Amino acid sequence: MKLAIVGLGLMGGSFALDFRCIYPKSKIYGLDISKKNEKHALELELIDELIELEDISIADVVLVSVPVDISLIIIPKILNFVNKETLVFDVGSTKELICKELLDHPKRKNFLAVHPMAGTEFSGPNAAVKGLYFNKTNIICEIDKTSKKISRKALKIFQLLNMDILYMDSKSHDIHVAYVSHLSHISSFMLGKTVIEKEKNEKNIFNLAGSGFESTVRLAKSSPETWTPIFLQNKKNLVLAIEEYILNLNNLKQIIEDNNRSSLHSILNNTNRIKEILTNTKVENEK
To answer: Listing from the earlier edge strand, what are the strands of the sheet with 27-31?
Structure first.
């Protein structure tokens, strides 16, 4: 199996490691706009060789792991070069725009819109970690627009990675991830911003930060190059999510100002259900 990875950061590098686990004799090629990333990917043995875009037709599978605004430009070009048997899939966090962009592409059937619910707050080839894709939820959008032969190739890879597959249309996907993924990044960035602006003594932030603060702002370490285009591509859904979040914050603020103990306790208690939702769903998925 020959794999070409376009974008040699966390997601691309980690996929290389996991792909090597399921296909030990695979040949992995890489391409990145950053020569530094290409050099590191070779040094870390994430890839075997570099490849030019024009030569990507030699690949059986092409993974695109670049910022979502760059995907709109690079994926149509990749499809222009691949052969009719090549699977091309991306791992971007937004799906509606890329699916619209490729709707009339002559090789649309080679493309599968994929969003694995996996990642860390780190970026670059050095952030690549083995096992990132194993046992994760993987959202596939508009599989009916991908040829059956190519989609079977993709599903075989995901099966070997023991991924739990969810099927969605691209519009629904972007609505759901605005709340369960993108809003959490917004919250983390804004908490970090608020603390940095209010607490001028950085030593105090370090010395006073407990595990709760650290875990809540973890996502604020994420790459701005990755998340700026995600927020802007999904702005319609994300703005609605932020508005609802602000309503809840303002309501909570008023309850605290009013010293309304019973309402405060009720909100916290009801929200504790998130623990049951996440725990029970995890158990069900593991069965």
So the answer is: 49-50, 27-31, 2-6, 61-64, 87-90, 111-116, 137-141, 164-168
C-alpha separations of 72 from 67, 77, 83 in Å: 9, 9, 20
Confidence (pTM): 0.88
How far is the C-alpha of 91 from the C-alpha of 138, rounded, in Å? 9
At residue 117, the pLDDT reads 95
When pLDDT is cut at 50, 70 and 90, the band that residue 217 belongs to is confident
Place of tokens 């994300």: 238
pLDDT band at 218 (very low <50, low <70, confident <90, very high): confident
- Could you tell me the domains of the chain? 2-169 (3.40.50.720), 173-286 (1.10.3660.10)
Confidence of residue 211 (pLDDT cuts 50, 70, 90): low
- Residue 201 backbone zone (phi > 0: left; psi -120 to 50: alpha; other: beta): beta
